[in-house]
From TrEMBL:
The keyword S-adenosyl-L-methionine does not apply. Belongs to the TatB family. The Tat system comprises two distinct complexes: a TatABC complex, containing multiple copies of TatA, TatB and TatC subunits, and a separate TatA complex, containing only TatA subunits. Substrates initially bind to the TatABC complex, which probably triggers association of the separate TatA complex to form the active translocon. NCBIfam families: tatB (TIGR01410). Part of the twin-arginine translocation (Tat) system that transports large folded proteins containing a characteristic twin-arginine motif in their signal peptide across membranes. Together with TatC, TatB is part of a receptor directly interacting with Tat signal peptides. TatB may form an oligomeric binding site that transiently accommodates folded Tat precursor proteins before their translocation. This is Sec-independent protein translocase protein TatB. It is found in: Cell membrane; Membrane. It comes from Ideonella oryzae. Pfam families: TatA_B_E. HAMAP family: TatB (MF_00237). The gene is tatB. Keywords: Cell inner membrane, Cell membrane, Membrane, Protein transport, Translocation, Transmembrane, Transmembrane helix, Transport. It is a single-pass membrane protein.
Amino acid sequence: MIDFGFDKLALIGAVALIVIGPEKLPRVARTVGHFIGKAQRYVADVKAEVNRSIELEELQKMKSQFETAARDVSQSVQQEVQQAASAVESAWKPEGSAEYAGLETTAPASLTSSGWTPAYQPPRKRWRMKRGAVPRWYKQRQGVRMHVQSGAARVARFRPPHSGA
């Protein structure tokens, strides 16, 4: 940036005082200061935007690296699972064995062709009951009244039983 020393600023001030005059100099100095402040804010905004875009690019690179690493791990896990499944299957069902020749892997016909299917029961919805956001167990623990009760019923509830004669 341009390097202004004290001597250069003093020279510019003296020339401005002579050219502009002492009456208008304070107003011109305020205006110049205002414009310099705007320019500094604009430069700071541009720097911040450039930094944000650089950070965004770095984050996108990190995201793509993470996705490729996750994809590689997923593929290696799938390959290991397939190898283990084939090893288990080959150990479980040896080829050429007469013992396993008649076994079926599907469900027996007696279960599939019985024709019985469970009847559909729609879920019971208590549409008249208001369900609050506070769980019932919490209300019970805190002693919150959950049912409306008249004053007379409340008195009768807590009245000690009278011993009949």
